Amino acid sequence: MSKVILAKDFMSSPVTTVNISASLIDIVKVMSARKISCLLVLKNGLPVGMITERDIVTFLASHLPKPTDHTTAKELMTSPLITINENDSLFAATVLCRSQKVRHVPILENNGTLAGIITYSDLVEANHLQLERQAALFGKKNGSNIMELNEHLIELTLTDPLMEIGNRRSMEMDLQQTQQLSKRYKRPFSLIIIDIDFFKLFNDHYGHYAGDECLKHFAYVLKQCIRDVDRLYRYGGEEILVLLPETTPDNAIILARRIISSIYEDYYEHIKSSFEFLTASAGVSGYDASKDAVLPSPGELIIQADNAMYEAKRQGRNCARLYEGGETQATL
Length: 332
Fold this sequence. Notes:
By secondary structure, the chain is of the alpha+beta class. The chain has two domains: 117 residues, CBS-domain, CATH 3.10.580; 168 residues, Reverse transcriptase/Diguanylate cyclase domain (Alpha-Beta Plaits, 2-Layer Sandwich). It has eleven helices and 14 strands. It has a six-stranded mixed beta sheet with strand order 10-11-9-12-13-14, with helices on both faces. It has a three-stranded mixed beta sheet with strand order 1-2-3. The longest helix is centred in the middle third of the chain and has 18 residues.
């Protein structure tokens, strides 16, 4: 069995850090003196955020000419912080960067302290190095073709080819990461599971090719309804799961209701439906640290959203329902 290549083997260490109370001017001086594009923010010795050049420029653009003398790292940093463990593989780190759309990933030791940092450029270079070694073993002169194939394979491991959204593998990884961030920083997040109404009847009447086109259009409509930070995954045949970071269940049900309306008002023909057009039913679950004492597991949240979605089906379809501790709250 080949040895698993760890991301930490390619990380940069030590990492430049500042305390959460550091001032804006001190942060700029440190980054300028060390010629770095980002640094990590610590609180009680543990990493809680990251500051990049872009964060500083964005902050100044929105606050100048107001005084910034009292601005600290807490106001500047990006948080929650997306991290990996020191024992995570190079491949897992690459997939995380792709799915979370981040360029810098801190690596933590098992006790939560900072071990180092790895950038997406580091990951690309490390993967290229490994592929060149593989190419040499297979007698190739260069690893460019293998590199292209590897990029394609990584994409395939994360994406549903029909709907062009995340697949189950990507969903499970992102849910786990989001749940861990929520647990660490006491931040809310929510799920929506959306299922097309009477889709079997649609397939039987229009045919499977038309069914595929319907699924692609379904995903397209959902993409227009969400933020850049939200993510879509194909959960089942005609079911899509929406992951909503930094969103309470109360706000998620508002979005779910808007999505249901957008699907119906798109007027996509479905003459075998009692609504005559394409509709969907949705179930919502989530975690709100200000209300919920226990953080459910990703699997528990999926079951809750799924149960709420089926309750929406029982209540007549073309609606959304919110899971609330064993019961669901209707929203039409």
